[in-house]
Amino acid sequence: MTDTPPGRQLGPTPPGDHASSPWTLREYSFLGDGERGALVGPRGEMVWLCAPRWNSDAVFSTLIGGPGEYLLGPEDHWNVWGGSYEEGTLIHVGRWLTGDSEIECREALAVPADPDRLVVLRRIRAVRGDARVTLRLDVRPGFGAHPMTGLRREGGTWFAHGGGLHLRLTGAADATPGPQGALEARFVVASGEVRDLVLEIGTRAGTEKLDAERLWQATERHWADAVPDCSGLAAPRDARHAYAILHGLTSSSGAMVAAATTSLPERANGERNYDYRFAWIRDQCYAGLAVAAHGPHPLLDATVGFMTERLLADGGELRPAYTVTGDPVAEERSLPLPGYPGGTDRVGNRAGRQFQLDSFGEILQLYAAAARLDRLDADARRALDVAVDAVERNWTRPDAGLWELENHWWTHSRLCAVAGLRAAARAVGGRAARDWDGLAEAILRETRRRCLSPRGHWRRAEGDDGPEAALLLPLARGCLPPDDPSGPRTRRFIAERLSEDGYLYRFDHGDRPLGEAEGAFLLCGFMMALAAHRQRDPVSAFRWFERTRAACGSPGLFAEEYDVRQRQLRGNLPQAFVHAQLLETAVRLSDERED
User: Would the pTM count as exceeding 0.85?
Assistant: First the structure.
């Protein structure tokens, strides 16, 4: 599969005449405020945004073949583009060079954010020469089902409403109405000057003044306070960027979505097109553990708080995924849109109904990390007991596992439970710790009986002798004694069978060559680096780290998979757990201490 679109697919609802053609995924930048996220293409076209929240319907859905986008870029199509994030923020500065000018567009979702109201900040700056700019704003709630109506201008501000949402736009008083409630303009920004545009979309009509300068200052202060210094880490700029992305994906509820998008294909014309606009328990634990490795930062408290709320509410019936408000994930359904080329459009996710044992092991790891940093309050301590009880009652039960496949006796799930129990026992101590250590030993003993190969490495599952890259994470987390030879043997076995050109795949697919069935799994590359570090192999650890962190486009965003041969991204983005593992690996490789 390539994510290079060969042309827009035909579908039941073709995009509008003005819709932008899609780019390869590596070209898109991401703006996030914790409550929703936007993707912006290299021509200045905002092609994806859901409102008011992550799993709401999209108002800009050009990315997946629907109508609706917000274009702000050079009028001259003879240009080259670039751009970067301001360090430690999700403030992106796009740049274009035309034949006679240099133009910048500074853009962000304003923060602190309101769950029911989003604000898009965009500032055009004419760096050299006059900037001739094109504007097209076409807000289409409901994945394009509802055009905005009631378009009117009052005192230089545009107003409209539709699909239960209200719109205001400032900075474009010279725009003219276009088809179906769109606004269009062409304007010139004199050399050295700037022009601010502020777009508000909310569930109620806005009344607060949209003061661009005040909103920019508040956004700058927020990012300065939210993202810690990472200068002491391996790859400090990438580590800090990863932290900013995790922050931008985390709601005020404490929940973090797995990615900002839905249905971006992992393989062309395949079935693996999923909606990741929900909070996966496991993924958020990865993020919390990464942050905890660096220090007691607010994202750790947010993660512990969300986990505690869900565990105390749902107990052993904890779901693998929730909306950011803690509600169940809706069933999958199809949209009447063509989809990103090679994909199909789906919203909702079936994983919300599965049992995944490894999630409880990761929760225990998270609570242990919080306890070591004195961030475990009384409610979280009660929730920890709930998680232990769930492991004790369910560890023999087949589960869907990390990869959300058929129910099986997956080795990874059991070893994650062992690692979590041992970490929690070390962190909490006392009589409970002795009981938890005993439970961990019992699980390990039975898992060893069922899942350890006669060759001395861990099998993928009971009855499945194949390699499994997910096993690297519990090995890195300390599920085995330091002198247990099965850990190094398993790492070597995985490297021999699942690596190609310095990248790692999840598992094999029968006789199909690596890279044919799916892309390299970037999460697994960072897991390999962590496991090598744990096993005192720093050269291998850094090699895997450096190779894996190169698998992104110029905006520095990771998807779930990477097409090694074509050097393209596959799947939804930005993928939170990949950024989390990058951050944790950067911390571990810069710190010689062992937990």
Answer: yes
